[in-house]
Amino acid sequence: MDWGLKNRISKIINPLDNRALMLAVDHGYFLGPTEKLENPQKTIKPIMRYCDSLMLTRGVQRTSVDAAYPIPIVLRVSGGSSIIGEDLSNEQIITSVKEAIRLNASALAMSIFVGSKYEHQTIVNLGRLVNEAEEYGIPVLAVTAVGKDMGKDARYLSLACRIAAEQGAHIVKTYYCENFEKVVESCPVPIIIAGGKKLPEKDALALTYNAIKDGATGVDMGRNIWQSDNPVPMIKAVRSIVHGTNSVEQAYTLYNKLCNETKNNKSKKPFQPNKNNKSKKPFQQNKNKK
Prior knowledge:
By secondary structure, the protein is α/β, with parallel strands linked by helices. It has helices spanning 3-12, 28-31, 40-44, 58-64, 97-102, 119-135, 154-166, 180-185, 201-213, 223-226, 231-242, 248-267, and strands at residues 20-24, 53-56, 73-76, 78-79, 92-93, 107-114, 140-146, 171-174, 191-194, 218-221.
């Protein structure tokens, strides 16, 4: 790899432990104002310091992320269909590499829909994106999606991940599944797992732990962090697994401890001056004193 490409990947995957904690906030590109992501800036600000990178669209990046804050960006560049449209798999490249360079993106992200009506279109678009991004040393993250009838099955996820890698993707994002280690073994590039639907906090931590144990490089979580009632403690607990050695129980204990600390801090009344002091007359110098 060229130096620039290596350097950008090192911002996504920490070279010290070869792990990655990505925060996904790109849901609005097809879901609109998702619950607890109605105001992206409000959602992102308190938790982004605890992740390694942010996955989002250019609109959210420009409007909701402080340009002075040094957070690596994984820029979503595909789209074109909404949740109420005919077919979510009918995506195209909607953000150019030149635009990504203007936004100082560390990586580009797009979806491929293996087994769908528009499978051919999305896979060819991935190849074209890799071609153009390689000219500028920008890595591409392929987000694998499979047909509705396939589900989260190791055979189909292995197929989707391998196709993404064969097309030149530098990182693949996919779902965790039973026999996930087989998906990892058959994919020659790092795999990051998606958080998926909202889970109870302990279940989301178990998902993180199991994925790392079975060979994932990291996680790209969204709902399971910012839809939590306690997003800061949750992302810290996830981080304790991804970049630490915590078990599920240890991470969940940490989560509850941080929640209690937050609750106690909120319950403390701020200091207020003694109201009785207001009735006291201010000191006046004795006029008779020479």
